[in-house]
Design goal:
The protein is of the alpha/beta class. Helix content is 37%, strand content 10%. It is built from 19 helices and 14 strands. An 8-stranded parallel β-barrel has the order 5-6-7-8-9-10-11-12. α4 links the parallel β5 and β6. α10 packs antiparallel against α13. It binds 4-O-methyl-beta-D-glucopyranuronic acid (GCW). The site of 4-O-methyl-beta-D-glucopyranuronic acid (GCW) has 11 residues, from loops.
Length: 672
């Protein structure tokens, strides 16, 4: 008996000892958490600058038992060392390693929508990471940011919001920006600024902003000289003009080309560029999705060489799913640049787990057919920008899984042909430390694979519970929660403009019989989208207005299918929660608890979305929910016209249980 007991105890002890012990981490290292430090990797190799290599390219190889990293420049060398560090973590740096790379795009930028009062437009990770209002710049954080950008190959940062404050160009701010640029330069990052069109008027009292007025032209030339005196390698300007109330050349009867070329002339002597945004739309247009092509196609070929048109991935505005912007397939004699949104303005802020690797892969790989088959969006653009999700939070992004989008963006900017799955794999292995006492293979199987599974399914889950089958822009004012009922105010800012639900059906008719948006695409896409038989189902209601009983490929009615998608979104997030519960033994308690809370919120928000959208659309369809979906949690009468309580900075509030704190409609609220 005694012998049996001692054997059993030994067994228990062995079992206890082989339990993985999670390593404590708080997410502040982001994806540089695992592996050797940059300095250690650098010290362990022989480096050399080889002018024959591309400027930002590198070559890692072994010769006579020595590991070499050669590069075309200091920046290339840095990328090479980080590539080696990553390869080590991924187990791809064994003897005989031979890796030669160069970036696909020369321009790989982050756009910070940071305001000079330190608020961040669509920022969900605290106030501006540049700390504009503080006495001095946050040196340490900027170094950290520089390392993170360099580690994924990003080489440019626009520091301020496209809704720009003219004061960013006054002497005091230029001096401050120069200090930031001095740090970023050390990481191969160029500094850029967004400008306000009316700056000459506000800053120097000029009477006009007419781009053909010699005084205005001279003002910008002088301003460029002043900036370049302080920042010799300044990158140039990003411009939002004649868009959402911002002034622009059209106010003076001039074109986008007149405006962009004037600025281009001012920065050209210094090698600067102008990134001119194509995000323009007027409330009077019957289809917002048509307007970029309508405004920019007639100007094709009229832009100066150092102007690049920056185009959002979709024709409306960073929705959970949009087709690619047709402009990518139309401009032939104008440089184009991609604008992705890393910050999750429409995908649950920093509360929802929504990995954009798949969103961007879908867009970059889409075929525009501009120059025949194989004219992918990735090949049409010559640069890439991502609206950053960074803030003062110690982990930069609000929480650990939001960092995956910064990482994915950087990796795709370096190589747009990488797969989302590979990027997800890399990010998980670099970000989460393997528990002590756990074998690599066990970690891969028990942790990396399931987390990768969550990442890969996450964006589609958001599409399902927010706006499936091509529905879009069903948001309330803050762009967090659902408000399909909203129809007051500027029409193209209301959900009703986009879903067009009525008793006959739902969806935006962009066919030839409708807004004609399909004609902005090249064949065969025009026909594919126009024809119901070939239109991809995930874009069905983007391009078509269909009756509730329209039969889908599943054999089910549209109404049932809509309900099933919303339900699937909820169930997928419930699946993420369950998976995450099971991963607790492998993750730092801090990171585990943070993500657990976020997933709880996400699951509750998913139900709120479903209740609001299905409940509201049901008032038109008049049909019951299909039998196999979860019943609505809250009846539509208790949700309609209601929104979530938000804090001063617009961050949504949830209660202890993770449920959204829903406010009574304004007119029902008691007077204070
Ligand atoms: O997505 C919309 C946002 C605005 C933003 C604008 C833009 C910076 O809601 O906050 O303004 O697009 O991209 O200019």
């Amino acid at each position: 008996m005694r012998k049996f007991l001692s054997l059993a105890l030994t067994g228990l002890l062995i079992a206890a000892c082989s339990q993985p012990v999670p390593v404590a981490q708080d997410g502040t290292d982001l994806w540089l958490a695992a592996g050797r430090s940059y300095e250690d990797v650098l010290a362990s190799v022989t480096t050399g600058i080889d002018p024959a290599l591309p400027a930002e390219g590198f070559h890692i190889y072994d010769a006579s038992g020595v590991r070499h990293v050669d590069a075309g420049s200091e920046a290339g060398l840095r990328y090479g060392i980080y590539a080696l560090q990553r390869a080590e973590v991924l187990g791809q740096a064994g003897p005989g390693m031979d890796l030669q790379e160069k970036p696909f795009y020369d321009l790989r930028l982050l756009n910070h929508w940071d305001n000079l009062d330190d608020t961040v437009e669509r920022g969900y990770a605290g106030m501006s990471m540049w700390e504009w209002t503080a006495a001095d710049i946050p040196v340490e954080r900027i170094h950290h940011y520089g390392k993170l950008c360099a580690s994924v190959g990003l080489n440019g940062a626009v520091l301020n919001n496209v809704n720009a404050n003219p004061l960013v160009l006054d002497a005091e701010h230029i001096a401050r920006v120069a200090k930031i640029a001095d740090i970023l330069r050390g990481y191969g990052i160029k500094t850029y600024l967004s400008i306000k069109w009316t700056s000459p008027i506000t800053l120097s009292g000029l009477k006009s902003g007419d781009p053909l007025d010699p005084k205005v032209r001279q003002w910008w030339k002088d301003k460029a000289a002043e900036i370049y005196a302080a920042i010799p390698d300044f990158g140039g300007f990003l411009v939002k003009a004649n868009s959402e109330g911002q002034a622009g050349p059209q106010d003076y009867g001039r074109t986008h080309a007149d405006g962009a070329n004037m600025l281009a002339e001012a920065v050209a002597p210094y090698g600067g560029i102008v990134m001119w945004r194509a995000f323009v739309y007027a409330p009077t247009s019957p289809d917002r999705a048509n307007q970029a092509v309508e405004e920019f196609l007639p100007l094709d070929g009229q832009f100066a060489d150092n102007v690049i048109i920056q185009i959002k991935n979709g024709p409306v505005d960073f929705q959970p799913r949009e087709p690619f912007s047709p402009l990518f397939g139309k401009l032939k004699n104008t440089k184009m640049m991609m604008e992705f949104q890393v910050t999750q303005e429409y995908l649950g802020f920093s509360n929802h787990l929504a990995f954009h690797g798949t969103t961007w892969e879908e867009c970059l790989q889409a075929d525009t057919y501009r120059d025949g088959p194989g004219s992918t969006v990735a090949k049409m653009v010559t640069g890439i920008a991502g609206v950053a999700n960074t803030g003062q939070d110690s982990n930069f992004c609000g929480y650990v899984f939001a960092q995956a989008n910064w990482y994915a963006y950087g990796r795709l900017a370096w190589n747009p042909t990488l797969s989302a799955e590979q990027i997800a794999d890399e990010w998980v292995r670099q970000t989460f430390l393997k528990p002590e006492g756990m074998k690599d293979a066990a970690f891969a199987k028990k942790f990396v694979e399931p987390v990768k599974g969550i990442l890969m399914a996450s964006r589609e889950a958001v599409v399902d519970y927010e706006m499936p089958l091509g529905l879009h822009h069903l948001f309330g004012g803050t762009h967090y929660g659902p408000a399909p009922w909203e129809r007051l105010g500027r029409p193209d800012w209301t959900p009703a403009y986009y879903h067009k639900a009525d008793s006959a059906g739902i969806g935006f008719d962009r066919t030839r019989a409708g807004s004609g948006n399909v004609d902005q695409y090249n064949e065969p896409l025009t026909s594919t989208y126009n024809d119901l038989a070939t239109c991809p189902e995930n874009l069905l209601l983007w391009f078509h207005h269909l009756p509730w009983d329209y039969k889908l490929s599943s054999g089910r009615d549209l109404w049932d299918e809509i309900c099933l998608h919303y339900d699937r979104g909820i169930q997928t997030v419930e699946g993420f929660r369950k998976t995450w519960q099971g991963l607790q033994p492998y993750v730092s308690p801090a990171l585990w608890a943070e993500t657990d809370r976020k997933l709880t919120i996400q699951a509750s928000d998913a139900r709120w979305w479903r209740d609001a959208c299905v409940g509201y659309f049901q008032t038109f369809s008049g049909r019951p929910l299909p039998a196999d979906v979860e019943p609505l949690r809250t009846p539509i009468d208790s949700l309609i016209y209601r929104s979530i309580q938000s804090d001063r900075l617009g961050m949504p509030q949830h209660d202890e249980a993770g449920d959204p704190i829903i406010l009574m409609p304004r007119r029902f609220r008691r007077p204070q």
